[in-house]
Specification:
mainly alpha, 6 helices, binds protoporphyrin IX containing FE
Length: 161
Amino acid sequence: MASPEGYSRLQIALHWAVAGLMGLNFVSSDAMKAAWWAVEKGRDAFGNVAMVHVASGILILVLALLRLAVRLGRGAPAASAGTSPMMALAARSMHAALYGAMILIPLAGLVAWFGGVRAMGEVHETLFAVTLGLVGLHVLAAAVHQWVLRDGLLLRMWRAR
Ligand code: HEM
Ligand code: HEM
């Protein structure tokens, strides 16, 4: 795959847009859960906040697919200087897992809600819980690079090259 010097402006914008929308889906999830359980009891509790959860979730799916296309076409910069092959592999695997999460979480939610598939609700929640841990590690890794190794990694997701 191609290895450009850095991430493009579009890649950076999409990274932070999706991170923000993931936060929005997290804070709107209680309302979505309430709407989901109300349906089980034959009631309707689908309000504006649940609507935000669905709309923002669909947007994440669309942006993630766009991101994947850009990444496959343009590529991503090589691991920062001094990174061991093991750590470079760990970073690549983490990024692949995060792509999987950005696509599979909303897909499972859509199948649960619009298809009425209860088990997919469980899958949706479990995938999210695992992803929360992965994002935690991802942010921790970025912080270690930035403030312990001091290799300016955070800037790669800030300044386009
Ligand atoms: C990446 C996007 C999304 C994220 C991060 C996300 C996150 C979450 C979270 C954190 C919960 C609550 C989990 C819990 O309390 O244990 C939840 C519940 C739910 N979400 Fe999403 N969601 C996303 C997209 C969607 C989409 C597009 C739909 C489609 C309508 C959807 C439908 C649901 C439903 C039906 C529930 C309740 C499931 C249950 O209680 O079993 N979500 N979501
Ligand atoms: C405050 C939160 C976050 C910080 C500080 C952060 C930081 C970074 C940094 C510095 C990179 C560049 C790594 C490199 O060049 O090797 C990166 C890449 C990446 N991040 Fe994050 N990130 C955050 C949240 C997220 C979230 C929520 C997701 C998705 C669930 C995500 C998915 C990715 C992916 C897939 C890449 C690989 C590059 C790409 O294809 O866009 N990040 N992140």
